[in-house]
Specification:
With 256 residues, the protein is mainly beta. Helix content is 7%, strand content 34%. Strands 12, 13, 15, 16 and 17 form a five-stranded antiparallel beta sheet that branches. Strands 1, 4, 9 and 10 form a four-stranded mixed beta sheet that branches. The relative contact order is 0.12. The model is unreliable at 1-7, 9-13 and 15-35 (pLDDT under 50).
Length: 256
């Protein structure tokens, strides 16, 4: 110990020596925690065609619900970085005016029924050709009783019979909407105000307030992939008010 400094020089020397050993160990090549092992990654590739065998450009390809690429002008795609393991692949028409039905590989409409894809490290899994089938989209305009366009109205296609599931979209600032393509079949169309409290009463196409009375809309791709003019004019909702009390005439709160 040097007089007046209060520093143990032998201890300092040991600290510097230990630091040098650690530094030399790090720079000699310990694996980095942030580096990815290429053995843990593979890729998926393939081609998407329409039902006539024509190449489809602009089809989104997703792995496990994460969109990673779109098909090129030849209908080809490559999902370059996919973790090793089993995955499910989805194909959807993400162009501005979609025509084709969303499907899981290989051709199923339900994710639970989709084929599992095995991906191996440093190797490409080439999938069979995927054929997209056209569906039917629906467009229209929603206005209020004064003829003004209404934004924020949810337009829902509710399938009848053994069809898959319902889809919905919301009107824009011009009161206009366009649904994604659906498969052939019978549907009821429901218009619901997305705001709360609701500004407009819920109704079905065409001018019905009860689903059982609503007119079925027959959508068939053979008649065209877009059905226009499914419009609605919504009125203000009626309200019901009242009072809830117990036998002692005391008001009761929070009764639904």
């Amino acid at each position: 110990e040097s007089p007046g400094m209060g520093i143990n020089l032998s201890l300092v020397g040991r600290v510097f020596a230990a630091t040098a050993v650690i530094a030399s160990t790090v720079f000699l090549g310990l694996p980095s925690a942030v580096s990815a092992d290429p053995m843990d990654e593979g890729s998926i590739s393939g081609t998407v065609l329409d039902e006539m065998g024509n190449q489809l450009e602009g089809i989104c390809v997703s792995v496990n619900g994460v969109t990673g690429t779109t098909t090129d002008q030849y209908g080809n795609y490559s999902f370059p970085v996919v973790p090793v393991g089993q995955h499910r692949v989805q194909f959807s028409d993400c162009r501005p005016n979609p025509t084709y039905l969303t499907r899981w590989y290989l051709g199923t409409r339900d994710e639970d029924a989709a084929n599992w894809i095995d991906v191996y490290g440093q190797s490409d899994t080439a999938l069979s050709v995927v054929y997209m089938v056209p569906g039917v989209s629906m467009t229209g305009t929603v206005i209020d009783m004064a003829g003004n366009p209404v934004q924020g109205i949810r337009v829902q296609l509710e399938p009848q019979g053994n069809l898959y599931n319902s889809i919905s979209t919301v009107t824009d600032m011009y009161g206009q909407y366009r649904t994604e393509p659906v498969e052939n079949g019978q549907y009821k169309v429901k218009f619901t105000d997305d705001q709360y409290p609701r500004r407009y009463a819920t109704e079905y196409w065409n001018d019905q307030y009860i689903m059982d009375n609503a007119q079925n809309l027959d959508l068939q791709a053979s008649n065209g992939t877009t059905v226009n003019g499914i419009d609605a004019q919504l009125g203000a909702p009626a309200t019901i008010t009242g009072h809830v009390q117990n036998k002692s005439a005391m008001g009761i709160e929070q009764v639904c």
